[in-house]
Amino acid sequence: MAGRGSNRGDKAAQERARVYTARREYHDGLLRRRRRDNLVAAIGGGILVLAILGAQTAYLTVGPGAPEPAPTESPAPTDSPAPVESPGPTDSAAPSGTPVPTVSPTPPGSPQPVPTDTAAPVPDSE
pTM (2 decimals)? Predict the structure, then answer.
């Protein structure tokens, strides 16, 4: 009679092992699906971003968003005379390194400047 009890224990152990294996396979399947979904989402998002950038670039360079070129007038060619050579050195005195002040005469009847003391008065310190 002792054999009947061990047979029940073996069946229960086999059932627990089967349930454990099924749970583990289910969990592994979920992980594979999540990984695949993340990869598909990343690739799809990258393609979407590239498509948006390409569309915006095309719109701004070729489409109605492109700036209209402004007409520019090109200067008409003119018949210009030959370049004139600069005059050669003259016999006038060359300027010296230090400027010389020129005194302009004052007209008659105008008041003469009066020298003033430019030093500021020193306040008394008391």
Answer: 0.43
Provide the sign of the torsion angle of the four alpha carbons 49, 50, 56, 57, taken in this order. Answer: positive
Contact 65, 59 (CB under 8 A): yes
Task: Yes or no: say if 60 and 66 are a contact pair by the CB < 8 Å rule.
Answer: yes
- Inter-CA distances, 13 with 1, 22, 25, 75, 98, Å: 20, 14, 18, 99, 116
Which pair of structure tokens corresponds to residue 66?
């492109």
Taking a C-beta distance cutoff of 8 angstroms, is the pair 78, 72 a contact?
no
Is pLDDT at 93 greater than 90 in this prediction?
A: no
* Structural contact between residues 106 and 112, judged by C-beta atoms closer than 8 angstroms: yes
DSSP letter assigned to residue 18: H
pLDDT digits (tens, 9 = 90+) for 42-85: 999 999 999 999 999 998 888 787 777 778 887 777 776 666 67
